[in-house]
Amino acid sequence: MIDPRFERQPGAVVRTRRPWATAVWSAAPVLAGLVQVIRGEAADAVIFLVPAFLVAADAAGALPRWTASAGRLRQLLPIATVAAGVVLALTPRHGVADGVAVTALGTAVLVAAWPDPPPEPRPATPLLRRSGAVWAAVALGIALWELVSFLLGLPSPAASIAHPAISDLLDPVADVPAGRVLLVTAWTLAGLGLLHRGWR
53 with 46: CB under 8 angstroms? Predict the structure, then answer.
């Protein structure tokens, strides 16, 4: 069904309503955000709940389209990503510089990568379906790990240590300078690779 706000006009884009897809993509970060609220981690809750709000707002047609600005941002993102990686690799963990670098880069990527409505609604190709299944499996696996670790770690500090979150497993590596540089390099290259493939 065509959204009446995006009915075909000469040169206009076409957008299709997929309420079930919006519900799924909104529910995942909402649930993750609620877990962070229960944990008392307000900053982490915001990281999950803000994207959920943006997905819902976009589905309602409430977000502007910023194609020109996104194009300019895309040209600057490789440099910005490397700069953020240098900050993350060389400054103290969980410091102000880390927070500023991640927040600024995340906001820029969100604006640059946020999709415009496709010019023509067309069925997903087999490759796209397989890609979606892989990403869904990865996201679901990580979410289940984190949720189970959180629930099993509730009874006591010893239980929390026995059932670590993924970030807890990476902490020993990130605490060593060489390990931190390695993790940041992998994170930076993976991000640039995903952006490049997505825009192609």
Answer: no
* pLDDT, tens digit (0-9, with 9 covering 90-100), for 31-52: 888 888 887 888 888 888 888 8
Contact status, residue 93 vs residue 180, Cβ threshold 8 Å: yes
Q: With residue 105 as reference, give the H or E element that holds it.
A: helix 96-113
Is position 75 within any domain?
yes
Q: Is the pLDDT of residue 15 over 50?
A: no
48: Cβ–Cβ under 8 A, 6 or more apart, which residues?
A: 29, 30, 32, 33, 36
Planar angle of CA 174, 177, 178, nearest 5 degrees: 95
Burial of 177 (0-12, 13-18, 19+ CB in 10 A): exposed
Same structural domain, 92 and 183: yes
Whether residue 116 sits in one domain with residue 181: yes
Q: Six-digit token pair at 189?
A: 């290259």
Write the CB contacts of 70 (distance below 8 Å, at least 6 apart in sequence).
111, 112, 113, 114
